[in-house]
Design a protein that fits this description.
The chain is built from no helices and six strands. It is mainly beta.
Length: 98
């Protein structure tokens, strides 16, 4: 599952929350009309090495299990074991929810 991917550097592995199936008015939306959700759960943190090879793992602002708000178009989508995941830079995380 997601444990088979360890992001490198200051990258974070997240899984987007599921998007709404219908509008507030009760209209069901097809997959093509849905907007990608900006909420996600942190699954794994990167190795925490910077460009110079220094360990910066303690500098991560988020931790595994955090619910976060992510940039709409940031990151790289990957598919692991049937799950659609996203590898993003920590700078693409806009905030922690809750």
């Amino acid at each position: 599952m997601a444990n088979t991917i360890t992001p490198l550097g200051r990258r974070v592995l997240v899984k987007r929350s599921s998007s709404e199936e219908k509008t507030a008015g009760g209209i069901f939306l097809p997959d093509t009309a849905k907007e990608k959700p900006q909420e996600a759960e942190v699954l794994a943190l990167g190795t925490g090495k910077d460009d110079e090879g220094k360990n910066v793992a303690d500098l991560f602002t988020v931790k595994k299990g955090d619910k976060v708000l992510i940039s709409k178009y940031g990151g790289t989508e990957v598919k692991v074991g049937g799950d659609d995941l996203l590898i993003i830079n920590e700078t693409d995380i806009l905030g922690i929810i809750g």
